[in-house]
């Protein structure tokens, strides 16, 4: 099992998977979120190319009210 | 017309979308304010959360979205957040906030300039939330900012314009830049004052969202911004220490009878 952090919370995955695979598995709404891994922005077109690894810190954000 | 980037807007009021009692009141307040630009933010989304009523509401509004980097404390954090916002909201506009002090939410101007410099190189239209410090504003302009958004007072404080002298100086020193007072405005009269100083627009949130009637207050701010701008364009008279009679006194009855108070 690989230990990662999703939005600051510890989670586990069985093997390295792509971001694309990860967001489908976690049932995120299509096109209504953006992703950063280890404080680096990941463009949508790269989701299929990047594998999540042990200790990665994934941030998935969506629109919120703001001032 | 208010110009930002290559776009123009009739309304000179930018409105925040946070802290409203309900989504319905937020929508009504946006309509009552007649704003064409609203600010939005990014927050962590929980897995499996398919409902995002706010996202649906945004898509239904005829407003330009201005995402912010609220809560960021470093240039790097703000740069990453700006990139996430650009993709999510499909805009290269960013209200750049880099906070340096949790108590006053005063911008960290050193990190702000660093972030602005990088984001402009990445093709962003940067609207920096800054202090009224002239040299900081010069640095931001130097790195390519076409808009400056100095605070009036700390965010959400409702204290109005703490330093109208410095704000007026910014107008004088940057006659061609788009200047927007962002934060600290509490009353419609504060917004009118900013506009009378020659600012191009004001950005506010709390004063409307936390009012007893946000919808009525949104309308009040709309009127104040229009009123202040028209006053500025009409040409305000210079303040004077002495009275200047507005009614002509020549040929007033008895005008030539001099009465000495000593008699």
Question: Descriptors for this entry?
Answer:
heterodimer, A: 67 residues, mainly beta, Ubiquitin-like (UB roll), 5-stranded mixed β-sheet, 1 helix, 5 strands, globular, B: 263 residues, alpha/beta, 8-stranded parallel β-sheet, two-stranded antiparallel sheet, 9 helices, 10 strands, 38% helix, 17% strand
Task: Characterize the structure shown.
The complex is a heterodimer of chains A (67) and B (263). Chain A has 67 residues and is mainly beta. Chain A has one domain: Beta-grasp domain (Ubiquitin-like (UB roll)). Chain A has 1 helix and 5 strands, in the order E-E-H-E-E-E. In chain A, strands 2-1-5-3-4 form a 5-stranded mixed sheet, with no helix packed on it. In chain A, strand 3 (34-37) and strand 4 (40-42) form a beta hairpin. Chain A is globular. The mean pLDDT of chain A is 92. By secondary structure, chain B is an alpha/beta fold. Helix content of chain B is 38%, strand content 17%. Chain B has 9 helices and 10 strands. Chain B has helices at residues 23-33, 53-60, 75-89, 109-121, 134-142, 164-173, 188-196, 206-209, 214-234, and strands at residues 2-4, 7-9, 13-16, 37-44, 64-67, 93-96, 125-130, 147-150, 178-182, 201-204. In chain B, the strands form 2 sheets. An 8-stranded parallel sheet of chain B has the order 5-4-3-10-9-8-7-6. In chain B, strands 1-2 form a two-stranded antiparallel ribbon. In chain B, helix 1 runs parallel beside helix 9 (214-234) and helix 7 runs parallel beside helix 9. The longest helix of chain B is centred in the C-terminal third of the chain and has 21 residues, at 214-234. Chain B starts with a strand and ends in a 29-residue tail after the last helix. The chains are: A mainly beta (67), B alpha/beta (263). Strand 5 (57-65) of chain A pairs antiparallel with strand 4 (37-44) of chain B, so a sheet runs across the interface.
